[in-house]
Amino acid sequence: MWPFSGIINTYKKSEAAVVVQKLLEIQANAGLFDKDCGAYAGVLVDAIWSAKPAIFNGSFGQRPFKLTVAATALANGLSHISGHTSQVRSDTSTRDALVLSLGNIFLEIETNGQLYPLNSLDHQLLESAMATYIEISEEVTNTSGAEEIIEAVSVAKQNENAIEPKQDIDLNFEEYKKRYFEEVKRQDPDSVVEGMHWLEFADEEGTKRAYGDGVDPKKLAEIVLSSTKITDING
Predict the structure, then answer these.
(1) pLDDT tens sequence across 129-185
(2) Which of 112, 137, 162 is the endpoint of a domain?
(3) What is this structure's pTM?
(4) DSSP 189
(5) Rounded to an integer, what distance in angstroms lies between the CA atom of residue 153 and that of residue 101?
(6) How far apart are alpha carbons 39 and 25 in whole angstroms?
(7) Measured CA distances, 215 to 11, 39, 63 (Å)
């Protein structure tokens, strides 16, 4: 067995953090967020993953989609800020940016949810995040900066594609596997012998899990080739 689980966990955390980062960058461009978007996104995702790793690492047989992880991270960040009155007073811009970012995820899911591989765990987590969003967004709309927030929402809607570029997810597993190995051979042609790459001799369990997790086959080839040696599948 090769160390696939750890690779995918790292990738899925990074994937969700990128979604949060892009959302925060939209708010930063609107003048509502002045922190390091990438670093802050990483902190938000790390916080929920460390608190409940079994939920996010697939231990329950399902792994939440990256938009769900991002929404959960944002909601958790909002709950933390809301639970500290002094922090709310001193950092309303961060709170507002998180509310808008979370709202933008729900807007995307409402519009294009049928395109994403959402499972029962996703729906549970999204319901919880929505409850937090509804509660705290009411506080935001009652602030003196409501006009600026409304304007930022408009900016966010114009940048929806920056959150989640649409991907073709209508592949069955055999098609997915074929595309994955095509990418492996394209990215690592020196390891192809008589038309075969050594990764084609690896157990399919990891590839099936990546397929179920919605990992893009091109990205999968990239992360596996960068993290796996031929000895990892022979030992």
Answers:
(1) 999 998 887 766 555 444 444 444 444 444 444 555 545 456 788 888 899 899 999
(2) 162
(3) 0.66
(4) G
(5) 9
(6) 12
(7) 9, 23, 11
Domain housing 181: 173-232
**End-of-domain residue from the set 136, 162, 188:** 162
Q: What does the chain come to in residues? A: 235
Alpha helices in 83-172 (DSSP H): 85-90, 92-112, 120-141, 146-158
Judge if 114 and 153 occupy the same domain: yes
Residue whose C-alpha is closest to residue 3's, from 218, 183, 202:
202
210-221 per-residue burial string, b: 16 or more CB within 10 A, e: under 16 = bbbbbbbbeebb
Residue 46 host element (H or E): helix 37-51
Burial (CB < 10 A; 0-12, 13-18, 19+), residue 199, is buried
How many distinct structural domains can be found in the chain?
2
